Amino acid sequence: VLRSSSLHSGSQQGFQYSRAILVENELFLSELRAFARAKAAAGYSQEELRETFAFLLFDKEEEAQRVCQSGLRVNSSSSGAL
User: Fold this and answer.
1) Which of 8, 36, 44, 80 could form a Cys-Cys staple with 48, CB 3.0–4.6 A?
2) Can you say how many angstroms the Cα of residue 3 is from the centroid of all Cα atoms in its chain?
3) Could you tell me which residue ranges the TASOR pseudo-PARP domain spans (predicted)?
């Protein structure tokens, strides 16, 4: 999934991953579902509501743990590698 999600095909083999972790936070999932319901009620199409994924690359595990606990909000992270 990580390799096939690369926007640039030339980048697909450019990274070597040692570990990927899927984080599911019920509070954040609840917020996402409420957001999607509100957008659907406002008339957004199923294509616009389709879930997409992004991957963050962290230098330190502590940075990833912080994001997993507090979420990722605009201007709340020093991470710049998406």
Assistant:
1) 44
2) 15
3) 40-78
